[in-house]
Design a protein that fits this description.
The complex is a heterodimer.
Chain A: H1 9-14, H2 18-22, E1 27-31, E2 37-40, H3 42-48, H4 56-62, H5 71-83, E3 87-93, E4 102-109, E5 115-120
Antiparallel strand pairs in A: 1-2, 1-5, 3-4, 4-5
Chain B: H1 6-9, H2 13-28, E1 47-53, E2 56-62, H3 64-70, E3 78-80, H4 90-100, E4 104-113, E5 116-128, E6 134-145
The chains are: A alpha+beta, B alpha+beta.
Chain lengths: ~130, ~160
């Protein structure tokens, strides 16, 4: 059973077929090495309401927090992405009508040089 | 107006104290946590205040250690509100504070490989004016950077 918290989540997802990725109980988006969205799974299409807007990568790499957006830090992100070792775990509380809910995000290097973004929303848990 | 278990979610004791100071003001203060009286305490160097303006938020105070980390101060800078960037962004946290009048909490752990990691926690709280409206948001950020020897807790 694939676990959202698995250290090698991206590799496990890449081992699945497209229909299996579509069936995952959490969102999965793949960006290429330019940051363009190349894949949305069904859960993400159903739950996010974000469609195919290509701003997702920008948000995570430049807009998570202005105080993290310095040149050195962004360089470390890019270097890790280039090495294929990037692993970011992000969670937040309070951006929902039910403020007790928590959204969790994993961002991991894809084997092709891009990145995977996995999102587990509160609604995902009910699937 | 309160996330009852939010305090238990915050890992940093200092950041938890910041949140609890706001909560104490909310519950036992003379009024709602006020922009003129709310004190970030020990976290002042890693905290910020932003005023709610039409179309965005303007930093009216930006802690010196945050500025050191970023390489510049954002004081005076307007962050334009963009609904496309609602996705966990700081602006989303700000907007949430204004619209829902509740705190927002984020944590991020970056693992770059080879033991190079950075962890960030952020709490953003609504601050009220004399008319009991949310006029500002206040926040504090704790960053633990394993690549920066002298910075073991804060920015």
């Amino acid at each position: 059973m694939l676990q959202f918290d698995s250290r090698d989540l991206a590799r496990q997802v890449e081992a699945l077929g497209e229909s299996e990725i579509d069936a995952l109980p959490f969102g999965a988006i793949r960006l290429d090495d330019t940051g363009a969205v190349t894949f949305f799974n069904k859960a993400e299409r159903d739950l996010s309401g974000y469609g195919a807007r290509p701003t997702v990568g920008k948000i995570f790499f430049t807009d998570i927090a202005p105080c993290m957006s310095n040149e050195s830090f962004r360089g470390r992100i890019e270097a890790a992405r280039a090495r294929g070792t990037l692993d970011i775990a992000f969670s937040w509380v309070g951006d929902f009508a039910d403020r007790q809910r928590e959204m969790r995000v994993r961002i991991q290097s894809a084997s092709d040089g891009g990145v995977w973004i996995f999102m587990r929303r509160p609604a995902s848990d009910k699937r | 107006m309160e996330s009852s278990n939010l305090g238990n979610r915050i890992n940093s004791p200092s950041l938890r104290a910041f949140y609890r100071r706001w909560r104490e003001a909310l519950i036992n203060g003379d009024g709602l946590p006020n922009i003129d009286t709310f004190d970030a305490g020990d976290l002042t160097p890693v905290s910020f205040t932003a005023a709610v303006e039409p179309g965005g938020f303007r930093f009216v105070r930006f802690g010196e250690r945050l500025a050191d980390w970023l390489g510049e101060s954002l004081q005076g800078r307007l962050m334009r509100d963009d609904t496309l960037e609602r996705f966990g962004s700081l602006k989303a946290a700000y907007r949430n504070c204004v619209e829902q009048q509740v705190p927002a909490y984020e944590s991020v752990h970056f693992d770059f490989g080879g033991g190079d990691t950075v962890s960030l926690e952020r709490v953003v709280v609504p601050l009220f004016d004399a008319k009991q409206g949310v006029s500002h948001v206040g926040g504090a950020v704790m960053i633990e950077d394993m690549d920066v020897v002298e910075s073991d807790v804060a920015v």
